[in-house]
């Protein structure tokens, strides 16, 4: 057992209540403009933006601080083309055969289909893997904990950081997505969880009206 060493926690600013309210409101105003974008510009985005957004994601709360995630950043056109090819193959199966009528009906207002040109247009595809085994240090093979929760939180922070930097994202979930291990050269005990498409929106990008409806506070929260 390692000793439980501690440090004073003094980094959090002690705002006044008024400042806290103003900041919470300002953050909501900023984040409420986030949209899932399906039309990307091919304009390049500096790598430093992605690096710092990934560093932000890497600060997410997680199981035992094992940080059970890996972000494979694809910028090579060949890799993007390979990923698109494989994803569209799975998506065609999904839309034409596997998806239930109820599922397809739920997707109708979003206008999604098996065509995923953005997988080649956008400057970056970040493939997010959860690590079932790992631990804190390279080479360790310890059990990891709460992998889905940890990766979900980190991905949320990544999306938030990218939005804050003025970039659009799309969470793409090909189904199944095991092919991502091979494309990204990741070991088979890592679980591919999402492809995050990142870039500037195309000049003529649109969003589905359906996506702009957000549940009001009294429907998403209760006070006890
Ligand atoms: N994976 C498919 C289908 C899809 C499913 C849900 I639920 C969405 O919110 C959006 C799409 C695709 O990426 O098209």
From TrEMBL:
Residues 31-200 form the Nitroreductase domain. It comes from the Bacteria. GO terms for molecular function: oxidoreductase activity. Keywords: Flavoprotein, FMN, Oxidoreductase. InterPro entries: Nitroreductase (IPR029479), Nitroreductase-like (IPR000415), Nitroreductase/BluB (IPR050627). Gene3D superfamilies: NADH Oxidase. Pfam families: Nitroreductase. This is Nitroreductase. It comes from Parasphingorhabdus marina DSM 22363.
């Amino acid at each position: 057992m390692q000793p439980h060493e501690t440090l004073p926690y003094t980094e959090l600013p002690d705002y006044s209540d008024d400042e806290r309210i103003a900041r919470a409101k300002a953050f909501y105003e900023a984040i409420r403009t986030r949209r899932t974008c399906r039309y990307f510009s091919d304009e390049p985005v500096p790598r430093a933006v992605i690096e710092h957004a990934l560093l932000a994601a890497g600060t997410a709360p997680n199981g035992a601080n094992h940080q059970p995630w890996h972000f494979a950043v694809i910028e090579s056109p060949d890799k993007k083309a390979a990923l698109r090819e494989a994803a569209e193959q799975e998506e065609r199966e999904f839309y034409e055969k596997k998806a239930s009528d109820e599922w397809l009906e739920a997707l109708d207002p979003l206008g999604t289909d098996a065509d995923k040109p953005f997988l080649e247009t956008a400057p970056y595809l970040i493939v997010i893997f959860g690590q079932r085994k790992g631990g804190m240090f390279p080479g360790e093979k310890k059990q990891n904990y709460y992998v889905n929760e940890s990766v979900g939180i980190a991905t949320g922070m990544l999306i938030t950081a990218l939005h804050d930097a003025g970039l659009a994202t799309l969470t793409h979930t090909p189904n199944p997505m095991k092919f991502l291990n091979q494309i990204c050269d990741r070991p088979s005990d890592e679980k591919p969880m999402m492809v995050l498409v990142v870039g500037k929106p195309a000049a003529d990008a649109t969003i589905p009206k359906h996506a702009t409806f957000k549940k009001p506070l009294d429907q998403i929260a209760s006070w006890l």
